[in-house]
Amino acid sequence: MSLPENLPAGHVRVENLSIHLGSGRDAFEAVHSLGFSIEPGEFVCVLGPSGCGKSTLLGALAGHLRPSGGSLEVDGQPVSGPSPQRGMVFQHHTLLPWRRVRDNVAFGLKMRGVPRAERHARAEEMLQLVGLEGFAQRWPSQLSGGMQQRVEIARVLINQPRLLLMDEPFGALDAQTRMMMQALLLDIWTRLRTSVLFITHDIDEALFLADRILVMSPRPGRILEEIRLDFPRPRPRHADLLTSAGFARLKRHCLELLRHEDGRQLPRLTPLGLPINEQTRPRFAI
Ligand SMILES: Nc1ncnc2c1ncn2[C@@H]1O[C@H](COP(=O)(O)OP(=O)(O)O)[C@@H](O)[C@H]1O
Ligand SMILES: [Mg+2]
User: Fold this and answer.
1) Which is the closest atom of ligand 1 to the Cα of 26?
2) How far is the CA of 163 from the centre of ligand 1 (A)?
3) Domain ABC transporter: where (predicted)?
4) For residue range 218-236, what is the model confidence (pLDDT) as tens digits?
5) What is the reported pTM?
6) Contacts with 211 (C-beta within 8 Å, 6 or more apart), sequence order
7) How far is the CA of 283 from the centre of ligand 2 (A)?
8) What does the pLDDT look like over 66-75, one tens digit per residue?
9) CA 27-29-34 angle, 5° bins
10) Atom of ligand 1 minimally distant from the CA of 48
């Protein structure tokens, strides 16, 4: 199979980035003073609790959201709007149900006026890359959730993005499919070496995938810590890596970081599961 050349991997620089959302009295700061970079071809995961501003950060990098302060650059160019050079994959696919798989994958090329025969050939290559050769003529509704996400990845990669932005792309999949998709994504990335920013709230997923993890605090999201991973590439199988001592040590560290930074103390509970306050405080020793 003729694989595409290595993609021209992007170099990302984010400096002092703040983003406010809402308006008037409802305005609030969603992310606060974020700074990090992604080296060309690097796989970076952002790990943080729900609501900490992960999707907001990705929306800004995709060019859908304007920051209120700081700067965002890809290859020295400020991000000023959406571009196929920064391909985005969400938790739920965005395939057009009335187009066949091949035409969904080739959609970006059609928009750019690439002739039909070339579109089809390149869509076929992409489908091979994601392990879906033979599915070109199917409709999206005929595929499983994992397969739909593979088509979505092919649809984005056909544009040869410099940066792949992934917002919890496997979050809606069952655990087995999810692990299979993680391995497949690493396999694709090993061949293409595009830069990836992958968002997740799943510690195992971040540890399995990343070269580097940026751990975020609850809202307004800040970067708490940057963790560089030196697990071997290509990664060992899930069964080996996830049960190794090195993995367990880092997982514990991430759990402590996220727990410590949760800010909210979990309420103490009575034996009936009610929060302890003056009304429910038991008159007997628990
Ligand atoms: N358009 C919006 N207007 C107001 N609040 C928003 C908007 N989008 C997201 N939020 C809020 O901003 C915070 C950060 O959201 P988000 O970036 O989606 O978090 P995450 O992806 O980490 O779960 C959340 O508290 C969310 O409810
Ligand atoms: Mg989100």
Assistant:
1) 4
2) 23
3) 12-243
4) 989 999 999 999 999 999 9
5) 0.89
6) 42, 43, 44, 228, 229
7) 43
8) 999 999 999 9
9) 155
10) 22
**Domain 10-85+161-273: CATH architecture, name and number where available:** 3-Layer(aba) Sandwich (3.40)
The pLDDT of residue 160:
92
What percent helix, strand, coil does the chain show, rounded to 5? 35, 20, 45
- Bridge partners of 196, per DSSP, are 43, 164
pLDDT tens by residue, 106-117? 999 999 999 999
Q: What are the helix (H) ranges across 170-271?
A: 175-192, 203-209, 238-241, 245-260
Question: Structure tokens of 111?
Answer: 């928009």
Residue 120: partners with Cβ closer than 8 Å, 6 or more residues away? 102, 106, 136
Sign of CA dihedral 76, 82, 87, 92: positive
**Measuring CA to CA, how many Å separate 121 from each of 106, 136, 147?**
9, 11, 20
CA of 46 to the centre of ligand 2 (A): 11
Rounded CA separation 171/176 (Å): 12
> Using one digit for the tens of pLDDT, what is the confidence trace for 142-184?
999 999 999 999 999 999 999 999 999 999 999 999 999 999 9
Rounded CA-CA distance 103/151 in Å is: 11
Ligand nearest to the CA of 57: 1
Relative to beta strand 163-167, strand 86-89 is parallel
**Cα–Cα nearest to 46, from 217, 283, 246, 241:** 217
Question: Largest Cα–Cα distance in the chain?
Answer: 79
Q: Which ligand is nearest to the CA of 220?
A: 1
Q: What are phi and psi of 132, to 5 degrees?
A: -120, 30
**CB of residue 217 inside a 6 A radius of ligand 1:** no
Q: How do 195-200 and 43-47 pair as beta strands?
A: parallel
CA distance 164 to 183: 16
Tokens at residue 9, please? Answer: 């991997």
